[in-house]
Amino acid sequence: MKSIGVDVGGTFTDLIYCDLDTGSLEINKVPTTPDDPSKGVMEGIHGLLAKVGRKPDEIDFVFHATTTATNAVLEHKGAEAGMITNEGFRDILHIGRHQRVEHYSIRQELPWQSRPLIKRRNRMVVGGRLRPPHGEEIEPLDEDAVRRGAQALKEAGVQSVAICFLFSYLNPAHEDRAREIVAEILPDAFVTTSSFVSPQFREFERFTTAALAAFIGPKVRTYITHLEASLKAAGISGDLRIMASNGGVATAGMVSEKPTLTLLSGLAAGVLAGAWLGEIARRRKLITFDIGGTSADIGIIVDGKLAETDSRSTSIAGFPLLSPMIDIHTIGAGGGSIAHIDRGGAFRVGPRSAGAAPGPAAYGRGGAEPTVTDANLVLGRLDAHDFLGGGMKLDVDAARRAVDGLATKLGLGLNETAEGILTVINANMANAIRSRTIQKGIDPRGFSLVAFGGGGPLQGADVAAMLEIPEVIVPPYPGITSAMGLLTTDFKYDAVRTAFEVSGAVDLAKLNRSLGQMEAGLVARFEADRIALDHVKFSRSGDLRYVGQGYELRVPLPEGEIAEANLPQVWEAFHAAHAGEYGHAFPANPIEIVNIRVSGVGLVPKLARPAAPPGGSLAKAKVRTSPCVFRVGGKLQSFETTFYHRRDLPVEEAFPGPAIILQTDSTTLVPPGASAEVDQTGNIIITLGAAQ
Amino acid sequence: MNDRPTLVAESQPVATRVDPVTAAVIHGALENIAIEMGHKLMRMSYSSIIRESEDFGAALTDAEGGQLCECKMSTPLQSGPIPGYIRGVKRRLAARGETIREGDIIMHNDAYAGASHGPDVAFCVPVFLDGQLIGFSVTTAHHLDIGASSPGSAGIVDAVDSYAEGLQFKAIKVYEEGRPNAAVWHLLRDNLRASDLVVGDMEAQIKAAQIGAERFLALVRQYGLDTVMLAYQDLMDYSERLMRNAIRALPDGDYSAETTIDGYLDDPDAKRRDLKIKATLRVRGDEIEVDLTGTSPQVDDRPINLPFEGTVDCAVWLTLRSILLDSAVYGDVPQNGGLTRPIRIVAPKGTLPNPTFPAPVIARFCPGNALADTVMKALANCVPEQVSAGIGNLRCIAFTGLHEGKHWVHMEILEGSYGGRYGMDGMDAVDTLYANTRNNPIEDIESHLPIRVNRYELRDHPPAKGKWRGGIGSVREFTFLSNGAFSVEGEGHKYRPWGFSGGEQGSTSSLLHLRAAGDEAQMPSKVPYHGADATDRLLALGPNGGGYGDPFERDPEAVLNDMLDGYLSTEQARADYGVVIIGKSVDDPATRALRASALR
After folding, report:
1. Which A-chain residues 378-437 have CB contacts (< 8 A) with chain B?
2. Is residue A571 part of a domain?
3. Where does the Hydantoinase B/oxoprolinase domain lie (chain B) (predicted)?
4. What ipTM was estimated for this complex?
């Protein structure tokens, strides 16, 4: 089986080819074509096929991470969308949670008011009302009003419609009927309902998720259709699989129906790659650490499981999003982060970034402010002549000038300032990891940090040291790890439903019926997508809370028919999860099952364990030695540091830091006191010293 | 005029006690701790006023109560007063000759010793390093019931003194050296309605404060007490410097404004109605004095007086920083005592903003926000491009009832709206100034309470006219599904939000009780416990904020958009804005002609 992974990023489109039978790998990198990303994708695929000498019709699968949906939201360039909603509730999308974004600001903007996903003029109201607890109808749907609303939207020229009724998560009948009517009147429009997109309570968040789907739906559908056609035209008959934010892949058809699935597509692939790398390196607890030019993305993996966000913590461009999503914590800290003195005289690094243009001062493209990359160069940790495999020359003098300007203002030395920039940015990153580990009752000292992206391998060891993480894993191709992650995915479809069952009075018949219906729904979905069911595994979970609380925690639910006797284990699991997350449980208090979830995972053949690298010797790999500055024992000191070419390093032969390892897509730092070796699968494992 | 205020000494480093790198690392760590405390409190707590409305605070202080950091998610009126709570706790304990010991946890809600008002109960965990008290980890939260004369902790508008407002906790040790004080907990359970929820929330507060204390101690152990405290002093200096720079950029002078609040509109006693709030800001160099002289005398036996420490000071500070160091313009500025050093507040004893014990204060929420609005109005004359026209004030309704012998209590904060701003319209249907809570999802309310929500959208009344129009208030309608009661504390039923620079005044809010029997009653802005039968309805119209600038200068496209979105009719566009709309577009020549003729 032969697969291609394509990850479209802001600047580059990364591609990877793998023959899953022989384990052979090849990579390719082409500029992203923002106007029509499929152009870059096709160019990259042709280049990759040429490299490996394969014909288009030999490719079985194309796995793809796309930013089409994300960019449409971030740039607010979506469809002219319409909405049909309950009479009396026209402005749920506009009022939101009646909370301002900023506490201390008169001149702020509220995204949902200043850039509405669906304008008020396109929000039509109709009679019809349901009520809890089971979605009983207290007023029938006014179908004539739906028709009139759809007609008005047609005249307004909308491309998509979101149908959003209160309590539809309990009973989708009104939304489904309205959808039929709207589809008759607007046959070419993208029509979706809030219960289809995410049947969970909290109307603002659910309606907004549906509005996001309507906003990006037409664009995503067009893009996917266009890409499929281009692949076919190029003779690639293999199936297109799209990376979803939940850490699985979906068919093109599925994504066209539920476009919100792709809003974190690219980030999810990086975490998956980290999980896979950890698995082949036989590590169970991993923190993935992906640093690019402007941001650092952090994910947590325990026993091969990716942490998922709870349903209240996900948002994009200020809009809440109810969609199963891998918990990825992003902070504005990357190689391009700018160090500066702010208005109050404090030393800060980021979140402002020099980005790709002008980029760090060292890029010589007009950037004059000191960045993290400049600091690394000043301290000797980057090779000016061997950056990106020599593809780019760095301007050491420009970097020094930029850092020196700041040093003068601070009254510090050049090296002290450069090292200070790194300390501050590393501390920011360590805080971000803390918020996902220590603050959730997870001790990072038992974890491995998987460092990738252009900047991860350079900062990884220092950040790990701050958190007392004992080792850092640097994958073979740190710069294209996300694309690699695409070849490690499975199909993953989720179903979720709000249940509201309280301990002591659980309606087991209803619970079992709901779970059964949800599983049947997923089975139908897999069958429709022609995925063989013998490769599908289902798992159940619930979002639980103590009665009265407003936030839920995810715990597993038993398989099969749930009986009274199974419930205590569920409650126990919740008490334990609560104690783990918050440091305390309230064992006497009743518990509420808020949502029930079923995940279906359709297994897909994956990237094989990579063959051991050929292996060279330290002597062969050594490029030179030169001085680099490190802070050891609280003092800044210069160390004679060995530079190696990664491709020539020996396998399973440890070498001491300080060392710098060069390769085309990244630079790895092994600090003084640490040691490193290449393992059997081509990872560099950095073991941190006892004293940093 | 400048688009942005320029700051003196921008981007210049200053002498600090701790090297800038260590300082940056410690500041980040402190902020992280406060966020964790708030995050955990919000997620562990039971009542919607904390978990949904986010009416809570979390902060670390030094041993004297100086604030090291506060949680960004918490509402300003909760975290802001924490230093005052600690000072009050220390004062009360000292007066009784008690000392603070390791393992103590202290409960406090004394509005005459730092607390914001009675329902906002603080739990203070003292932090000890090698036997020495080095600071406090504190959480505050608004509790559903505090044992007042009628159920709920909002709308207790008929309390005649501090004793009628509910239980008073004056630095009470609920844990002593690690052991729970069982008697206190029994007392709480026996005297608070909905005590499962309230006590659950209190336990969550304690746990969150303990986590803060642990993290604080770990930080101090890592960097050393001296370094952390010096870095914190640097941080206060930093915030102070920003505030002083911002004040220095203002022209010296006196700026004053006056507004009027409803008080008790249906009260025969004129002393309880139509109360004045006056603020005079004296800008001198890099300092401001805020003088509230001229504000009405305290109301001796109605709880709309404002605790000077805990409400008045916070209202003033928060308004000044929101205008002078607007975070949308300046980014994050650490909230700490440094910010308030250049600001002096004066309020004569015995007036609304500085009452004498035991004058009641529990319903101070709305008058306090009106005070914030008055401070903004005074500053409008000084920095017209940084303010909004008058805000629509908030209201709070407590819904209560009995179910199987147990109380249910639900509090809804009804949003206001902002006035128009320079270059921007007012924000619609949103919390204003010193409060920033969240509404309750309709699907949560109806799933857990005998209440139905019939309507929640922008009200139909056209927004206040202006070059930048005022924000639009909400309309909400509720039905009682079982017999119960409601009580209300609000403002703005009589006095309209102020317009600015030619903009129109906003509109008042109102509350209608539609009884099952068929009759209806307009309610004043303050309603003590008031029975309601099943199928009774409450219709609440929210206020529209004031307009900013001459409506005939409004961008015709903006007028068109308001028309298309249903805020205005074509006729109103023509009459109120001089914009001629034909079909769905602006007739430019006709508009120019109409506007020109209006000038003549």
Report:
1. 409-412, 420, 423-424, 427-428, 431, 434-435
2. yes
3. 19-551
4. 0.94
